[in-house]
Amino acid sequence: MQVLKLVETYSPQILKNIPIIGPLLxxxxxxxxxxxxxxxTDKVIKLSAIVGTYDQEKKLDIxxxxxxxxxxxxxxxxxxxxxxxxxYKYLISIFDEKKQSGYIIYYYTMxxxxxxxxxxxxxxHSVLSHxxxxxxxxxxLRKLKNVLGGLATALDFDMAKVLLFCKQxxxxxxxxxxxxxxxxxxxxxxxxxxxxxxxxTFNK
Length: 204
Prior knowledge:
This protein is an alpha+beta fold.
């Protein structure tokens, strides 16, 4: 979604309330865009939108309150399997009756991460991805080791870090509901991190 264009169309003045954004780095899933931040090479900013119909103001507010809870959890608890979030801010609600659309626009800043390799993406597609018939994979540790052992004969990856990452995901109270290789990156030490947390929920 072109969130920046949406803001520039309806309320360009609110851009002064966010860090100065640089070039577009990536499309952050279906609900946002990720930009560099001018004069800060260690962070990036994601502009996000919650989308509904123009008459769903209450539902959009509830959805945003949930996202605030997720972001607060990450900022306070710093779950190891997730990217670091520094701050966030509600920007504006937009309701366009003519287009039958409603939006809540917000942003959050996070630690800049690195892309995974082609081999690492193949590994995560095999052991974690939700993309196969919308099945959430959760291998027992012994089976996961066996699967990774087989993959290691053909692919180059750090098995110990993959195992640790999967363990950290399973132990976290936060549940990422859209795990696929595009939502996994790594820090400068090679530790894997989940990004695109807008659809997260909590383990009950």
